[in-house]
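hi! just following up on the protien thing from before. the input was this:
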Amino acid sequence: MKRNRSKTLVLYAALLSVFTVFLLCEVYIGSYSILTTVSLQSFRRLFSTKNGRFQTQTGSFNRGDLAELKRSNFSNSFTEDTLNRSLFVSMGDIKKTAMNIFFVETRCSTEKTLEGYVHNKGFVLSARQSCAIESTALTNPDREIYVFHSCPLDDDFLHHSPHFVAQLFSYPNVHVVKLNNTQVFNGSPVQQLFEKRLLESSSYPVEHSSDVIRLVLLWKFGGTYCDLDVVTLRSLEGLRSNWAGAESEWAVATGVMNFDPEGSAHGMLQRILQHINYHYDKDGWSSNGPLLLTSFIIRECNVHQVEDAADRCFIDFTVYRRHVLYPIHYSQADLLFDSILGPQTARMVKTTSYSVHLWNKISCNMTVDVGSTQGYALLADKFCPRVYWNCGTLF
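and the predicted 3d structure came back as:
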């Protein structure tokens, strides 16, 4: 009898240990239960690589062969020689509507940062940045996408750009706007900031230019702004208009946000820009961006913290909870580069979110092998395939 009891206790202890492993895995991933069928150890046994082949319980295939097959499908699918439309539009061509989508590249937006690019002829965007644009064009074919490019561009810039750049323009809703600071700032609430050349003295000229220009474009035209280190996972239609997303319990991010060109939320945006115009902080990394937006939302929504704004806001503005736009916190950015947890991470964000942020400042040196099972690779394969399969062996 005692032996049976001992065996029973051992069995219960073993079951408790397995249950503990599941809980730890869920805590590691976040608040989502994405490892509910197998433990991490059995997951590794189920998917493993031996001698360059991808092993599963149902057989194996050569990952390199699969990658080569996909690469051949997407290479030569579109070239600059097959293009039959103008790629450039002017700011005057942009209509006022919440349906606009903007990307802003500000590498050459100040005289200081322009110096190294005065002879530039082609797109300066990387494959990952181009992926952000393609994923948004792919999932939002009914919206016009404007890429504001600050560095010099030749009229035939595709001939001076990596092959993956040409793939962006297989999407007819993708357009290029040559960024002209005078045109952007004139008539805006931050015109004085520009005329005083305060951005030229910034400790973070590229980042601060982006912080301000994105707000000005949304104020002038309305629409959605997206960072160049996001992957858009579905149509933004379900989010309606006038929104941003919480990146944590205490902060609202500015990496993806939408404003109508008029109304109460537009009024809040104007007040934010007026604040920047008179209280610009040249030394604060995020003081003209997320921190400022967060403080205005808490005040104008008449709430005490960001979590409250997600439930109720007394102006026409929505703060979406973290899983909607920022499912991977910046402290867990490495999850998207993990080849073991990659499939489950990718499945989780595709199920719950509209976009995923890659936190480029943190992840820029994390490599992605094209054709791998890393989470970022799997998302790129699905949402920016033309760029992904035309960028070489590293993404």
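The first strand starts at residue 48 and ends at 50.
The chain has 17 helices and twelve strands.
cheers
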